[in-house]
Amino acid sequence: MSVVKINALTVPAEMREELERRFGNRAGMVESSDGFEWFELLRPVEGTDRYLVYTRWRSEEDFKRWQESQSFQAGHAQAAAEAASQGQGQGHGHGQGPSQGHGQGQGPGHGHGQGPAATGSELWSFEVVQSTGRRKS
Ligand code: HEM
Predict the structure, then answer these.
(1) N or C terminus: which one in the chain shows less Cβ crowding within 10 Å?
(2) What residues are paired with 122 via a beta bridge?
(3) In angstroms, what is the span from residue 76 Cα to ligand 1's centroid?
(4) Is residue 94 over pLDDT 70?
(5) Polar residues compositional bias: what residue ranges (predicted)?
(6) What does the pLDDT average to over 35-48?
(7) Torsion of the alpha carbons at 111, 112, 113 and 116, rounded to the nearest 10
(8) pTM given for the model
(9) Residue 26 pLDDT
(10) Residue 132 C-alpha to ligand 1 middle, in angstroms?
């Protein structure tokens, strides 16, 4: 059964463009991972002001493996530093609890030295119960 992992990011209005640019720069960060099925960066329009990073995986194990991988950790070095300094013990930005960005430095994955565009994040997990796509013609 596939699992859906959504990272809900709080992003100040003035950082939206920067966030989208950073995601754009990281195309390919996840596609080649074993068990990866789908990714979408969802920009909020109505009902919430949080961006959703939608990812779908073949299994929980595949997601965990990706989170523990070099590719995820390098891409989320800033989050990792902050999670560690908040004593969460996870070390790689699981999105549990807020990840506050204070602009104190630059992770390797970041475009420039202004710290994270997101000021908070929350990880949501789902199991796919039903799924359908566009009808094939
Ligand atoms: C559901 C799995 C994911 C989790 C748990 C996660 C975790 C996080 C966290 C905690 C942040 C906020 C801290 C920070 O800004 O550094 C963040 C931001 C970010 N993540 Fe992820 N992430 C996930 C998926 C992805 C994917 C699939 C990509 C790339 C395709 C990605 C690329 C980024 C980028 C570019 C940022 C923005 C950094 C910024 O705020 O400037 N993430 N992620």
Answers:
(1) C
(2) 8
(3) 6
(4) no
(5) 128-137
(6) 98
(7) -40
(8) 0.78
(9) 83
(10) 27
